[in-house]
Amino acid sequence: MPNRKILCAVVFAGSLMWPIVGCKHTAASESAVAPRAVDPLKVALTPELAKSISVGKPQWQDVTTEEKVAARVETDASRLARIGSPIDGRITQMLVFEGQHVRRGQALAMLHSSALSDAQFSFIKAASQQTLARQSATRAEQLVKSDVIGSAELERRQAEVLQTSAEVTALRSQLRGLGMSDQAVTQLESSRRINSDYAITASIAGTVIERKVTIGQVVQPADPAFLVADLSNLWLVAEVPEEQSGSLYLGKTVIATVPAVPHEPVTGKLSFVSPVVNPDTRTVQARMDLPNLKGLFKPEMLASMTFESRPRRGLTIPGTAVVRENNKDCAFVKTGSGEFLMREVELGPEIAGRRLVISGLTDQDNIALDGAFHLNNKRKQDLVKGAE
Questions:
Q1: Residue 248 sits in a domain of what CATH number?
Q2: Residue 203 near residue 104, CB atoms below 8 Å
Q3: What's the mean pLDDT in 361-366?
Q4: Is 125 exposed, middle or buried (0-12, 13-18, 19+ CB in 10 A)?
Q5: Looking at residue 37, what is its pLDDT?
Q6: Of the ranges 126-135, 181-190, 208-217, which is most confident?
Q7: What is the pLDDT of residues 118-152, one digit of tens each?
Q8: Which of 5, 276, 284, 291 is most buried, by the most CB atoms less than 10 A from its CB?
Q9: Is residue 120 within 8 Å of 175, Cβ to Cβ?
Q10: What number is the average pLDDT over the span 209-222?
Q11: Cβ count within 10 A of residue 252
Q12: What digits encode the pLDDT tens for the residues 169-179?
């Protein structure tokens, strides 16, 4: 009887322990099949992947960076002419308008000037007095030879010739200053016909880019009437920030881009670098010549100018060591455990196949110099497998 009680107690105790053992077994099973946590930035190097990877350290070398600044297209000041009237008058006829190409000496507008007619009248009067004075001096020479008059009278008449000649010369110069050609002055002297109409003519060949007068307008000598420019050559002008201007010099090669004419490459050399800094903008003006034989470029177009900075010592890595992830540059750094860790880095632009390291790496880091793309693919595959 006692043995039966003991047996029942053992059976009862065993029944109580069974759920506990079952729970432990279930927990152990679940622990065995739980996925291992995967570091999203690490990737293990397999023997097969190692064939595509080369490892090394970033290198110090002299590097140049590309500086890009805003620019604009301007007219070449040496091929630009502000044309006006040297005399005051009223515009009577317009002969050209904006956009027209004109030749040198071509009439742009006609005006009527009373000042011109007054100057012509004074010249004709002085020329007539000069002729009379010469004739009088010639007769006086004959009379002196005949003892009709004395030599003092001859000298007086010769002095009148000199005086009238000086007046004619002065008035001739005045007419030239008013815009009359030598041929026109000579014709006026011979014909004695006053013409108060004056033609405003182009001083250079080019395109009329601005007109400031209309018919009936009264103009003064200081008033510009037309702006004519030879657009076959233009200027590309940039305002370079003071801190970037140290590498600028005459003859430096620059590359420009004009968004309005994207298919036309522009390369040239700096023809001017300002010797002073603009105190208001803290910039240095630089410009290059822009040939425009096709007429594609126009003044005031927006542009950009790119040039290389001065060489400086910098830490660089090859472009094959860089991958883009989440719109950021990254490199793979080898760790002591034989794995690679993807690290975000800040890099400069690519020059000759290498990137300047701004931050994120040192010259002691071992990185994947070649094959970073394959490492990144392996890292992504590991993430997908770890999520399954």
A1: 2.40.30.170
A2: yes
A3: 92
A4: middle
A5: 55
A6: 208-217
A7: 888 888 888 888 888 888 888 888 887 877 777 88
A8: 284
A9: yes
A10: 92
A11: 15
A12: 898 888 888 77
Answer for the pair 308, 262: CB distance below 8 angstroms, yes or no.
no
- Tokens at residue 242, please? 């003071």
Does residue 298 sit in the same domain as residue 321? Answer: no
Q: How many domains does the chain have?
A: 3
Which H, E and C letters describe 13-80, residue by residue?
HHHHHHHHHHHHHHHHHHHHHCCCCCCCCEEECCHHHHCCCEEECCEEEEECCEEEEEEEEEECHHHE
Per the confidence metrics, is the pTM higher than 0.90?
no
Going by C-alpha positions, the residue among 70, 378, 103, 371 that lies closest to residue 228 is 103
The domain that contains 321 carries what CATH number?
A: 2.40.420.20
Is the pLDDT at 369 greater than 60, yes or no? yes
Sign of the torsion angle spanned by Cα atoms 303, 308, 314, 315: positive
58, two tokens: 């970033």
Based on the fold, state whether residues 167 and 142 are members of the same structural domain.
Answer: yes
